């Protein structure tokens, strides 16, 4: 019996190339059928990763979650929970930050005064009241001693300039580190006088 496409070229071509029979879709990749990730679990992992190795403020962590598009309600709930269990503690962060950056820092050249520390804590998202309470623990004598240490460390760099320029440079250096003008001038005057120089009057 002749084939049914005999006499009809297009039917013959279809039969030959099997275009007539619709091809079955390829089987779905079962491995790709992963359920949608749980947003809360993802957010929790982000927080734990961020807190590994160093403390962070609530604002820093909230910003990180927002950058990862974590829904606000989930972010707030998790941040509250992390605070409850002590994994987020802005007050402790502020005190540790001050200890690492302030008058008692071992690296003299990087010591900062209260005003500069307050600005850094503000940028970190620490509440003003929390920052103020932590900064109030700084001993004024320690701050003055830190300023003196900074000036002594810089005296050699101003050996070749006159006393007026030396005074201005040293006071400017202290100002950039957050020391008030009154303390800065007093410390610079004392240290230059101790080095046998004539400091500029404020």
Automatic annotation (TrEMBL):
It is found in: Cytoplasm. Gene3D superfamilies: Winged helix-like DNA-binding domain superfamily/Winged helix DNA-binding domain. Residues 141-188 form the RecX third three-helical domain. Keywords: Cytoplasm. Transmembrane segments: none annotated. Coiled coil: none annotated. Belongs to the RecX family. The keyword Chloroplast does not apply. The gene is recX. InterPro entries: RecX_HTH_1st, RecX_HTH_2nd, RecX_HTH_3rd, Regulatory_RecX, WH-like_DNA-bd_sf. PANTHER family: REGULATORY PROTEIN RECX FAMILY PROTEIN. This is Regulatory protein RecX. Residues 1-36 are annotated as: Disordered. It comes from Nocardioides conyzicola. Residues 43-81 form the RecX first three-helical domain. The keyword Cytoplasm applies. Modulates RecA activity. It comes from the Bacteria. Its main location: cytoplasm. Residues 89-135 form the RecX second three-helical domain.
């Amino acid at each position: 019996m002749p084939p049914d496409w005999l006499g009809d070229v297009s039917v013959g071509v279809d039969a030959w190339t099997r275009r007539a029979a619709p091809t079955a879709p390829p089987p779905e990749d079962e491995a790709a059928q992963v359920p949608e990730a749980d947003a809360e679990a993802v957010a929790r992992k982000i927080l734990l990763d961020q807190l590994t190795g160093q403390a962070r403020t609530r604002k820093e962590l909230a910003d990180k979650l927002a950058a990862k598009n974590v829904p606000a309600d989930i972010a707030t709930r998790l941040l509250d929970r992390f605070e409850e269990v002590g994994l987020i503690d802005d007050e402790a962060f502020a005190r540790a930050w001050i200890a690492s950056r302030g008058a008692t820092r071992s690296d003299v050249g990087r010591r900062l005064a209260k005003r500069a520390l307050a600005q850094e804590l503000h940028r970190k998202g620490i509440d003003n009241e929390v920052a103020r309470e932590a900064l109030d623990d700084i001993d004024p004598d320690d701050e003055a001693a830190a300023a003196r240490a900074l000036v002594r460390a810089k005296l050699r760099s101003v050996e070749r300039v006159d006393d007026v320029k030396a005074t201005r440079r040293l006071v400017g250096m202290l100002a950039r580190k957050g020391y008030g003008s009154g303390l800065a001038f007093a410390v610079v005057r004392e240290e230059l006088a101790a080095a046998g120089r004539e400091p500029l009057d404020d």
